[in-house]
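Progress report, Aim 2. The chain analyzed during this reporting quarter is listed below.
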Amino acid sequence: MNMFHVHPANPREDFMLLSPFDPDQGLSTYEWHHKERKYYFCPKCGVRCFTFGGMGEIDVVDLTELDDNNEGKREVWRAKWDGEDETRPYVSVNGTTIDYREDFDLRVLTEEKRVQYFDDRSEPEEKKMEARWDRPHYGGCY
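Predicted structure tokens for the chain:
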């Protein structure tokens, strides 16, 4: 399974779940970190879509403000956050599950040096390679 962690800069504004509105009901979950964080999986294929820690809520968002979308206002599930560091929710999205959009290419994040790649595929007894900005390590992905 491929996993490319994408941590949104603003967990409330930069991550919205369009479906299902209640991920605890519509997705499979695994709780960890003293039940403060959850892995959310697709119940059909088992791919981990995102990890979340904190409180979520259903909110109404005007999608026309986000891009050229003509869908208008609709309900989404998103992190509940007041902007304070001590209440910051944890969001990690599996980048390989992000819906395709012509104006969003994960390779651009690499070219702009906004993504750092870590070697997490080496065996424990092997020396891990240093983190790098220019390209994924062997077996990694953009």
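Residues 106-111 form the longest helix (6 residues). The mean pLDDT is 82. These observations will guide the mutagenesis work planned for the next reporting period.
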